[in-house]
Write a structure and sequence with these properties.
The structure is a homodimer of 504-residue chains. With 504 residues, chain A is mainly alpha-helical. The first copy, chain A, has a domain of 102 residues. Chain A contains 20 helices and three strands. In chain A, strands 1-3-2 form a three-stranded mixed beta sheet, sandwiched between helices. In chain A, strand 2 and strand 3 form a beta hairpin. In chain A, helix 6 packs across helix 7 and helix 16 crosses helix 20. The longest helix of chain A has 32 residues. The first copy, chain A, is globular and about 70 Å long. The termini of chain A are far apart.
Chain lengths: 504, 504
C-alpha cells in the first residue's frame, strides 16, 4: 500500500465510525417514537443531544480535516493522487463536500439555533393549543433571521433560499422550484375546477369502525404482500408513521393503527417505499458516503411512488382489495370501483397531512411562497396569519377558521427548518417521471400489479435508483433512468390522466 | 467559584458524558434482546464494539486523567483541596478508583481478550451443540491464562482470584467466599438429605398448558401489583429475561412467556427487584459514580429478595394466588398450600438455571471451587469434564450424562469471566440478612404481604439500600442496615426454617 492508500484507509475508518454512531442515533430516535417510557423523554433528548454533538465534533475536528486534506484539496476539490479507485475518488469527493458544508457553519451558531428551536417548538405547541399566534410570532422572527444568517454562512449566488433548500436537495434552487410550481398551479386548479362540478363520491363506508386488532392482522398481510424482508426489518406502531435506516441491514418502519383503515394502509405503503431504498443501498461501500441515499426528494419519490402511484392504482387494489374485504365484512358489498373512487376523493382541506393527492402540492406551494416572502422580508413574522389565509383562499379556495388549522399546523418552522417543504412536492414530481418511464418500458406493469407480482417494479427501482446510493446525484439518477432531465411534465400528465379517468 | 471548583465542574461534565453514552450502550443491548431484526445481529455487535471502545477511550484519555489529577492524587488518593462538599469528595474518590482500575489494564490486552472471547463463544456454542468438549478446551486454556495475567495487572495480596472477583464485588476475596461456602455446604446437604427421605410433592398441575395470551395478561396484573412505574419503565419479552437501567428514569425489564407459568412469574419478580434498585438510585447525583449501584452482589440480592424471599413465600401467594386461579381454571381445585409446596420443590438438577432454591448455591460453589483450582493449575483445561463430574457427584449426588449438560452448560467462561459466579450466591446471602432484619423490624410484614401491600418493603429497601447508590460499599450498607457485618448465618437459618416448615 502506498502513502495515499494508507491515508485513505485511515480516513475511511474514521468516517465509518461516524456513520456507525449515526446509526445509533437513528436507533435512539426509533425508540423514542415507539417504546420509550413517556417519563424519560427529557433523558432521551439529552442522550440525543450528546451523541449529535459528538458526531458533529468527529466530523469537523482537525484530525479528520487533516487526514482528508492529505488526499484532496479542500478548496478546489482537486485530488492529490490519481492512484485510487473510482469508488475511492467519489468517496473523497463526497466527504469533502460534506466537510466543507459542516465547517462553514460555526458550532456556536448551531448551538444557538438548536437552543432557540427547542424553545420555539414549545411556543409553537402552546400557540397551537391556545390558538394564539402571538405566542409563536417572536420565535418565527428569530428563525427567519437565523435562516438568513445560515444562508450567508453556506453561501449562494442568486437567492438565500438556494442555500437553504440545498441542505435537503443538493443543487435545487428557488428559481427551478418556481418554474415547476408555476406550471403545476394552473394544472391542478384546472383539474380541481372540473372535479368540483362533479358529484362527490360516496366515502361513508370508509368511516368504519375497523377493529384495531383486525387492522393489525391486515397490516401484516400487506407487509407480506410487499415482501419487506423481516430478517432485516420490522414494523411497529407510532403516533406518526416513519421509517428509519439504522443500517442497510436494519431498516424499520412504523404504522398508525386507529379507526381509519386507509391511514394504516397508506402509511405502510409510504414507509415501505422509504425502507426499500434504505435496504437496497450499496452495502458493500458501508462507511463511505456512497452508501447513503442521494437526496431527500429522491427518498420521498420512493415513498410516494408506493403510496400513491402504485398504492392508489386500480391494478394494485384489484389484487389486494379481496384481502381487505376478507377482514372487514362491512366492505363485502362495496365494489372495487367504488372503493378506489372513494380512496381517491378530492376535497380541499385546511390541513396538509389530511389532504388528498391532488391538492397536497398546493399546500407545499403555499409554504414555499411564504418562505420566500419571509426571507425577502416582504412578509413580517407577525403578519403571517393574514398572508397564510390569503394564499389559502387563492390556491385552495378555502379559509381556515383558526390559526391552529392555518399557519400553526406544521411543526417544521419551529424546528428552524426553511427549504424543507419543497422536497415533499419534488418527491411527487420525481416519482411521476420515474413511474412514467417504468410503465413505458414495462408493458405488463398493470397485469403484474393485478397478479400481486411486485417483484418487477421492486427490482427496477433497486437497479436504477437504490443501488447507486450517493454515487450519482438526484438529477443524474433521474436523467440516467428516464433519459431526460427532471421536469414537471410527467406529473401534470399523470394528474390529468388520472382524474379524467376517475371522474370520466 | 474557585480554581478547584471549576476544575471539578469540568471533570463532572466529562464524566456525565461517559455515563450518558453508557446509557445508550444499555439501549443497544436492550434492543438487541427484544426487537432487533435477526439479520442485523452482526451490525449490532459492531455498533456495540464501537461505542464501548469510545467510552473506554473517554475514561482513560489524558484529558480526563489530567483533570482528575488536578483534584486528587491518583497514587495516594489524597484530595488536593478540602473545599468540596462530601458528595464531591466521594465522587472524586470513586472516579479515582475506577480510573486506576481501568488504567491498569493495557488497551491492547483488552482487545486481545475480547477477540479471543468472541472466538471462544463460538467454539463453546459449537462444542455444546456437538457435545464435544475438545472444541472448547483450547479456548478455556487461553482464558485461564488471560485471567491470571489480568489478576497480575490488577494486583492482589493473597490470591489472583481476589483481583478477579473484586471486578464484580469490590473487596470480596477467595478466603471470605471459602469461609461462607464451607459453612453453607454441610447446611444445604443436611437439609437435602432430610428432604430426600420425604415424599416428593405433586407438581403435575404446574405442567400446564397455560395459554400464552393469558400469561401476558397475568404478567400485567403482577406488574400492577408490584407497582413498577410504567411512566419510567416497561416490560417486554425476550428469550432470557433481564433488566436494564438506561437511566434512573428509564429502566426496563423483560420476561419470558412459554408453557411454564412459574418461569414468567419468577422472572418478573426477579427483574423487578433489579429494576426497583435502578429506579431508586439517587438521581440528583446523575453523572457522578454515586448514582450507580454499589455492587453486583447487592444488585442480585435485590432480585433474589423479590424472586425468592418474597416471591416464594406463603404470604405473598395468599394475596396473589387467586389472581392466578382466576386466569387459569386448571388451578381452581389446587389449594394454596399445594401450589406453594410444588413451587418450592427440591430436586437436584444438572442445570444451574433450572435448579431449585436450595441446591442452586451448590452449583455456584462447584464453579467457584473449579475456578480456583484452574487458576492454581491444579486442574488443566483439558481435564475439566472429569473434575466437573466428580464435584457434581460430591455436591449434588448426581452425574451429568453429557458435557453439554455438564461443564459446557454456562456461557460465562467463554466470555472470559472468572470471579463472576459467586455474586449469584452472595446475592442470596445478602438478601437473607436484609430480609432477616426487615422481618424483625416489621412485625406486620406477613400481614402486609397477605393484604397485597408491598409499599412497606419497597420503601424500606429504597431508604436503606437503593438511595445510597455507590456512596457506601456493599459491606457498609449491609452493616448499616442490619447492624452486623455480612455473614452466612441468616441464610442458613432461613433455609433451615423454610424447609423444616415446608416438609414438617
Amino acid at each position: 500500500m502506498n502513502k495515499h492508500q494508507k491515508s485513505f484507509e485511515r480516513l475511511f475508518k474514521k468516517h465509518e465510525k461516524i456513520v456507525t454512531l449515526k446509526g445509533i442515533l437513528s436507533l435512539l430516535n426509533w425508540d423514542q417514537e415507539t417504546y420509550l417510557p413517556p417519563g424519560a423523554i427529557d433523558v432521551r433528548s439529552h442522550q440525543t443531544a450528546e451523541l449529535t454533538a459528538l458526531i458533529h465534533k468527529m466530523k469537523t475536528q482537525a484530525n479528520f480535516k487533516n487526514n482528508l486534506e492529505e488526499l484532496i484539496n479542500l478548496k478546489t476539490g482537486k485530488l492529490k493522487t490519481q492512484k485510487l479507485t473510482d469508488i475511492q475518488k467519489k468517496t473523497l469527493e463526497l466527504m469533502r463536500k460534506d466537510y466543507v458544508k459542516y465547517a462553514k457553519i460555526p458550532v456556536s451558531f448551531i448551538h444557538k439555533i438548536s437552543k432557540t428551536s427547542a424553545l420555539a417548538i414549545n411556543a409553537w405547541a402552546d400557540a397551537r393549543k391556545k390558538n394564539d399566534y402571538k405566542i409563536f410570532s417572536p420565535f418565527l422572527k428569530k428563525i427567519i433571521d437565523f435562516n438568513l444568517q445560515k444562508a450567508d454562512f453556506l453561501g449562494y449566488e442568486d437567492h438565500p433560499y438556494d442555500a437553504l433548500v440545498d441542505q435537503f436537495e443538493p443543487k435545487m434552487t428557488a428559481k427551478k422550484l418556481h418554474s415547476f410550481f408555476q406550471k403545476l398551479k394552473p394544472a391542478i386548479k384546472n383539474i380541481l375546477d372540473k372535479i368540483q362540478k362533479k358529484q362527490e363520491p360516496d366515502t361513508s363506508f370508509l368511516d368504519g369502525p375497523f377493529s384495531k386488532d383486525k387492522q393489525r392482522v391486515l397490516a401484516k398481510v400487506l407487509l407480506d404482500h410487499l415482501k419487506l424482508d423481516l430478517s432485516h426489518s420490522r414494523m411497529d406502531e407510532s403516533a406518526h408513521p416513519f421509517s428509519t435506516g439504522i443500517h442497510p441491514k436494519d431498516v424499520r418502519i412504523t404504522t398508525r393503527i386507529d379507526k381509519d383503515l386507509l391511514s394504516n394502509i397508506t402509511s405502510i405503503l409510504h414507509e415501505c417505499g422509504h425502507a426499500f431504498y434504505e435496504r437496497n443501498l450499496p452495502i458493500e461501500y458501508f462507511g463511505s458516503p456512497i452508501c447513503e441515499s442521494t437526496s431527500l426528494s429522491l427518498h420521498e419519490s420512493q415513498s410516494r411512488l408506493w403510496e400513491v402511484f402504485i398504492g392508489k392504482s386500480f391494478s394494485f387494489w384489484k389484487f389486494f382489495y379481496p384481502f381487505v374485504q376478507k377482514h372487514f365484512g362491512s366492505l363485502e358489498n362495496i365494489s372495487l370501483q367504488k372503493f378506489c373512487k372513494a380512496m381517491n376523493k378530492v376535497s380541499p382541506n385546511f390541513i396538509r397531512i389530511e389532504s388528498d393527492e391532488l391538492t397536497y402540492c398546493l399546500h407545499i406551494i403555499l409554504r414555499f411562497e411564504l418562505e420566500l416572502e419571509m426571507l425577502e422580508k416582504k412578509i413580517k413574522a407577525k403578519d403571517l396569519p393574514e398572508a397564510w389565509n390569503h394564499k389559502m383562499k387563492v390556491l385552495l379556495g378555502i379559509t381556515p377558521k383558526t390559526n391552529a388549522e392555518g399557519c400553526l399546523q406544521d411543526i417544521h418552522w419551529s424546528c428552524g427548518e426553511f427549504g424543507y417543504f419543497p422536497t415533499y412536492a419534488l418527491g411527487n414530481v420525481i416519482a411521476a417521471q420515474l413511474f412514467d418511464t417504468y410503465t413505458t418500458l414495462n408493458a405488463t406493469w398493470e397485469r403484474d400489479l393485478e397478479d400481486g407480482n411486485l417483484d418487477p417494479i421492486k427490482n427496477w427501482l433497486k437497479t436504477n435508483i437504490h443501488r447507486h446510493g450517493r454515487y450519482y446525484s438526484m438529477d443524474e439518477i433521474v436523467k440516467m433512468t428516464t433519459k431526460r432531465p427532471l421536469s414537471i411534465t410527467s406529473y401534470i400528465q399523470y394528474l390529468n390522466n388520472k382524474y379524467a379517468r376517475l371522474y370520466a
